[in-house]
Design brief:
- This protein is mainly α and 503 residues long.
- It folds into 2 domains: 3-327, no CATH class; 337-480, no CATH class.
- It contains 18 helices and no strands.
- It has helices at residues 3-11, 27-33, 92-96, 112-119, 123-130, 155-167, 170-179, 188-207, 215-225, 232-244, 252-270, 287-296, 308-328, 337-357, 361-377, 385-405, 411-445, 449-480.
- Helix 6 (155-167) runs antiparallel to helix 7.
- It is globular.
- The protein starts with a helix and ends in a 23-residue tail after the last helix.
- The relative contact order is 0.14.
């Protein structure tokens, strides 16, 4: 059985299955192992930390679990994945207008010159590089940048990293680089920010190395971020690299310990994103659990037997979830593609309607005709969706120009634009949920690492267009006195228009 599938199923609380039944309860394991704890060899990690294979799991005051308190399903033809985002209010404003904490204002800003030195390229060359899809990598630990959108414990860097993912802007990337080089002094917060920025900057270099970024520099930054202070994502990635002997010398015990620490830290964060505290409203990080569980079940792990109860429980949950999914008919041969395609189709229709209200329907007709042809064929050739995305981006450029230049529309037009903004905000939330669902499903549920990366690219481009529509309409509304609707906060809210069907 594919271990990554086990992991995906293990964290999915879907349909009628009670989330509490999926808890990764290690108390029983603890009782069996505590008596032998003193006999366990404890080599030092790269940061000089205790390499106890049980790590923080042996805290008698807590039960370690998935942290999954919401339902996450696999998207079908008529719905997107259901999940819980951050603080439970994954609205369009949070996605498209992240507010940066005050502390970041006191941190170094961008320095494009230093960025150019690291890449060995001009700013324009770096920008062109980042706009391309990273080539498929043989590293099965690092599949995409989106996977690590929640791998931070400081809001400043989480927001900065996700701003980079959204815009691929050099300023955000450069600022992470500069923050990674600060002297944090005795400030605990700044130490965490430094570690988070190091990982964020390093993982970008690593993922884009096939296109000309600095792979070795990326590895060094990730290594630094797994030291002291450390970052969740770096603990998981560098620990897994150590376990499997990828990019660094193999150290099975230390790799096991580091990934477990990353998993534990992620768990602590995940259960707090919906309550008051420093993690309130931040993104969950579930990928660490997948990696740790894969390592826990690996034959090379000397502590594999100690984790068998948990893996067996995961296997049982897998069968239950698969049965429920089969009953609902939510799995398809193309996996997530139907939901991804559906999102693109909705966005195309919304852009078309917005263009009609702005009086540029004729200008968009050529693009709409091309899209219609692709739409009729994409179900049998998922690769065509990239061309559909390009068309939607081209349509949006024309729509944005109209939003800046067109005069106010009549009252009916104003109502239509307000409704389209409302619908676009729902779509933004749904797209955010879709990304979470794909992350939880993992490579096994997304057709492999290469396909997962491709899907994330499409999801990311969708978000960029949707956020530009969001901002463009807000500016237009302010300029022409269009009264917008109260923003929706529920991704399952009803659209004002029946997208995909005749109204």
């Amino acid at each position: 059985m594919n271990l990554f599938l086990k992991l995906a199923i293990f964290v999915i609380c879907s349909i009628s299955i009670n989330s509490s039944s999926l808890a990764f309860d290690l108390k029983k394991l603890q009782q069996k192992l505590e008596q032998n704890l003193k006999q366990i060899q404890k080599p030092k990690s790269s940061a000089g930390k205790n390499s106890n294979p049980l790590g923080n799991l042996l805290n008698s005051k807590k039960i370690v679990g998935t942290g999954a308190t919401s339902t996450v399903g696999v998207a079908g033809s008529s719905s997107v994945a259901k999940g819980n985002q951050g603080g439970g209010k994954a609205n369009a404003k949070r996605v498209c207008e992240p507010s940066f904490p005050k502390l970041i204002k006191n941190l170094p800003g961008a320095n494009i010159g230093n960025l150019e030195k690291d890449f060995g390229k001009s700013a324009i060359e770096i920008k062109n590089l980042l706009e391309k899809k990273p080539p498929r990598s043989n590293d099965q630990i690092v599949s995409s940048l989106k996977t690590f959108s929640g791998a931070f414990e400081s809001k400043e860097i989480e927001l900065l990293y996700n701003k980079f993912l959204l815009n691929k802007d050099l300023d955000s990337l450069s600022q992470m680089r500069e923050i990674a080089g600060i002297n944090p002094g005795f400030s605990k917060d700044k130490k965490q920010i430094k570690a988070d920025a190091s990982f964020g900057y390093g993982i970008v270099h690593y993922v884009y190395s096939g296109l000309g970024s600095n792979k070795n520099l990326g590895i060094q930054y990730i290594k630094n971020a797994s030291g002291s202070p450390d970052n969740i994502g770096a603990l998981v990635v560098y620990g897994a690299w150590q376990f499997y002997g990828i990019n660094v010398g193999q150290n099975v015990e230390n790799g096991n310990k580091m990934t477990m620490d990353g998993y534990n830290r992620a768990y602590d964060k995940n259960i707090k994103v919906e309550v008051a505290g420093k993690f309130k409203g931040m993104k969950k990080f579930t990928y660490g659990e997948k990696i740790f569980m894969a390592i826990a079940g690996d034959n090379r792990n000397p502590y594999k037997q100690q984790y068998q109860n948990q893996l067996a429980h995961a296997a049982q949950m897998e069968q239950k979830v698969k049965a429920e999914l089969a009953k609902e008919g939510q799995y398809r041969k193309s996996g997530w593609w139907p939901a991804v395609i559906e999102q693109q189709n909705r966005q195309h229709e919304l852009l078309s309607l917005l263009g009609e209200n702005l009086g540029i329907a004729e200008e968009l007709s050529d693009l709409k005709a091309k899209y219609l042809v692709l739409k009729s064929k994409v179900s049998s050739d998922n690769k065509l969706i990239e061309r559909m995305v390009i068309i939607n981006e081209a349509m949006n450029k024309r729509v944005q120009k109209a939003l800046k230049e067109k005069d106010a529309v009549d009252q009916k037009g104003k109502e239509n634009i307000a409704n389209l903004q409302y619908d676009n905000e729902i779509m933004i939330m749904q797209n955010d949920m879709l990304g979470v669902g794909i992350t939880l499903a993992g490579p096994a549920g997304a057709g492999g690492f290469g396909e997962m990366a491709e899907i994330f690219k499409i999801v990311g481009l969708y978000e960029r267009v949707a956020c530009k529509v969001y901002s463009g309409i807000k500016s237009y509304a302010k300029r022409t006195n269009v009264q917008l609707k109260k923003a929706p906060t529920n991704p399952k809210a009803k659209f004002t228009r029946k997208f995909g069907r005749k109204s």
